[in-house]
Here is the input.
Amino acid sequence: MITLYSYPELFGVADNNGYGLKVFAFLRLNGMDFKHEHVFDASAAPRGQLPYIDTTAKRSATAIPSSPISSPSTA
Here is the structure.
């Protein structure tokens, strides 16, 4: 499962940062399952900035659809 780490909500908006709000909206509009975690301290972030996405959760092979575009052509 994807986890979005971003700043806390403000005035009823999911994130008080424009970049975090864009990522949140993208995930919601695409119907993706994700967990939204609000953090104050960005020191644990990969580059020390918020927002960031953590995708380290294990996924089964059947959960990831194979794409003909990503596979090399044998022609």
User: Anything to note?
Assistant: The first helix runs from residue 18 to 29. The radius of gyration is 16 Å.
